[in-house]
Amino acid sequence: MGGDSLLPPSYLQKLLIHLQNYKYYPPFALRRHIMGEAKIKMTLDCQGQVKKYRFVQKTGSQLLDQAVQEMMKQANPFPAPKVCHMAFNVVVPIEFKISDA
């Protein structure tokens, strides 16, 4: 498999936007103001399929971590990169934050 890739910022942004479309904030966590940030390292193939993923950092909440796992299932496949020769790794942050706005 490929190593950590130097992906264009525009592709990383596309991945983050794609993930946001599948983000689910559990209602219980919202009511309790449970917040956290996960970092996920995933290996994608050239078609955008997740080959594997793991938590690099958990949210600190089992409920939010479960939401991240569900999001990863729902979001697969991801957008394929324009140029790709082998599977590659990428780390993405997933933040659960309640704004006061």
UniProtKB/TrEMBL annotation:
Gene3D superfamilies: 3.30.1150.10. It is found in: Membrane. It comes from the Bacteria. Coiled coil: none annotated. Residues 10-101 form the TonB C-terminal domain. Its main location: membrane. Keywords: Membrane, Transmembrane, Transmembrane helix. It is a single-pass membrane protein. NCBIfam families: tonB_Cterm. This is TonB C-terminal domain-containing protein.
